[in-house]
Structure formats: C-alpha cells, structure tokens
Design a protein that fits this description.
This is Lambda phage uncharacterized protein. The protein is about 35% helix and about 20% strand. The protein has 4 helices and 4 strands; from the N terminus they run ααββαββα. The protein has helices spanning about 5-10, 15-30, 65-75, 110-120; strands at about 40, 45-55, 80-85, 90-95. The protein has a 4-stranded antiparallel beta sheet with strand order 1-2-4-3. The N and C termini lie far apart (about 45 Å).
C-alpha cells in the first residue's frame, strides 16, 4: 500500500485514483509534500492544480527539478503544466493520461518519443568536444 494513503484519507478524502497519482507526482517534484505551499484543488476528474509560492528552484541541471518533472511526467503519463499565478506565485497543473496512443488531448508520449519530436522540429548542430 502507498505510504501516503493515510495522508490522503485524512487531508484529501475527495481524491480519486488519478488525482492521487497527480498528488504523488507533485510531491515528488517538490521533494516532498511538506515543500508544497498552496491549496490543492481538483482540476477536472483526472487532475489537480496548486497555486504555489515560487520558493524553490526548477531548472534543467543544477536544482534539476524541472528535468525531474519532465521525465516523471512522461514516465507516469501525467500532463504537466506551469503557469504564472500572481506575484511570486506559480500554478502547477497535473492531469493523468491513460494511453500512449490515440487523440492528442488524451494520450501521453514516452520521453523517448517526445525527444524525437522536439529534435525533428528543432534540429541543431551537434556540439563538438
């Protein structure tokens, strides 16, 4: 059983299975739920949204939580979105997807598929060492 189950039941009894997966994802990219500051709300049947104080770094290498978010989102089939949400605030939105194939708004590709797509759309010359 997921060790967060008691926490869900106590603090977020309304979470369904998809929203619990989104909650786990948000906890993981924040390095634990104790680092998420803001009210967690449902965003449709399959998602969550949190307006969070921008109190942590998200980048691609040093403080690599942005890279972690991208990789975990593709591995877990969670569509992840970041939006501005006011002074020193960011809105994090997570929606669980259930398929790798099908309609654009229902599927979620693997990270490998996403890398191929980006590189096809934005080719660059390889850096020589």
């Amino acid at each position: 059983m997921n060790p967060r189950h008691d926490f869900y039941a106590k603090n977020y009894p309304w979470l369904n299975a998809d929203q619990r997966e989104c909650f786990d994802f948000l906890c993981d990219i924040h390095n634990g739920g104790n680092h998420m500051f803001g009210k967690i709300q449902a965003c449709g049947e399959h998602g969550l949204v949190i307006n969070s104080k921008a109190s942590h770094y998200m980048s691609t290498f040093d403080y690599s939580n942005l890279t972690k978010a991208v990789v975990l989102a593709h591995d877990r089939m969670i569509r992840f979105q970041i939006e501005p949400s006011g002074p020193r605030m960011l809105k994090f939105i997570a929606h669980k997807r259930h398929t790798r194939e099908g309609d654009y708004c229902e599927r979620h590709p693997t990270i490998e598929e996403a890398i191929i797509t980006v590189r096809e759309q934005h080719p660059c010359e390889e850096v020589k060492a």
